[in-house]
Amino acid sequence: MSVIASAPAVDVPGLYPAGHPRTVGQIEGFALSAIAPALAVIFTNPFDTIKVRLQLQGESPSARPTAANASSAANAQPSGAKPAPKVYRNSLDAFAKILKNEGMRGLQKGLTPAILREGSKNLFRLGMYDPIMSVLHDPAEGSAPGWKRMVAGSICGAMGAVSCNPFELVKTRLQSSSAKALAVGHQHNYAGVWDALRSIMQREGFAGLYRGSMLSMVRSIVGSGTNLSAYSLMKEYLLVEQKWPDNAFLDMACGLASGIVSCIFMNPIDVTRTRFYNQPYVNGKGVLYSSGVDAVRKIATNEGPAAFYKGFITHFLRIGPHFCLTFVFLGVLRRSLAGLYADMDAREAFQSLDRDGDGVLDEHEVELAVQRIIPNDDEKATAYYAQRIIEKADHDHDHLISFSEFRDMESEVKAIVKERKRQ
Fold this sequence. Notes:
This protein is mainly alpha-helical. Helices cover 66% and strands 2% of the residues. Helix 8 runs antiparallel to helix 9 (248-278). Belongs to the mitochondrial carrier (TC 2.A.29) family.
């Protein structure tokens, strides 16, 4: 099951002057894949800010050095150092304190790079899923197995992680920056997105923009693999087996469920990546962690395995609604575009069937339409189908089909074609 396309429609070539209907193509798919999550993150970014603060909380006190004394702080860091005191008791406390001390702007820190991240990441993460699945699996063989969906999602995740890493890095550092009383982790004190990018380039070089890219790739491989496979499997089951309608509620249910699955697998990697992103760097080297593996070892040693699930509730409150809104927006945008294309097809089809150009289809024109759309040598069958279509679509009982009634004529034609295919 595609994450972009809707359930397959009845194929009625004769209904369309071009021989086939307009569909949401790959170019539109890429655009929708970038727009939908960029809209979703506007609503979910506050939870991401809280998650970052909670994940940085408890890091060794040497996580807060300035660039001038970072090197000596690194040498002074003892194994098993006593964690810094807690600033935030839990997610709700973090929300209240950030809102009180920093306002709504504090909760929305990093929003601009978050939007850029979602757009650049999902251009590949969502946009490439269908093309990759088409290579891995032939739809004629039936439903794709879960492992193929997992592989496709993982590949998409890796591509998306590489494309968005600079924005992810900047977002994390901006979100960690806070009022002194609420400071957790190292404080970079950037003035904004472009100041952050310029500062990183000046102090850490171009490679600095790709700090933690391997961690991001691992996180995205795991996250996208589980998310997209869970979403597509559930959507296919509910559409095909349970006969749910393809609407926003379906997108919401599948998106939320896939978010739960992803969060369970991603949170340990997310904690590690947040720490690695936010640490200070001196001469291109991390003060606290030399690598992702080193970060895992130190977090486990100093804080215990439970530390890898810090911020889990807030993480889910961020990615659960985020995936939910992403797939809802994606579905709404896709259905709206498909609806626009269907309306354009309907107008062209109506004009081609309206042979005398009077703006309506009379009974003779409906019969000619049936002959073109549903080839049949039996004149009685043709007349029967034409009468059936008129009875279904002629709401004002004037024996004429106007354009406002043509969409119902389309529906009845497709129902007849579907019945004939079953025979």
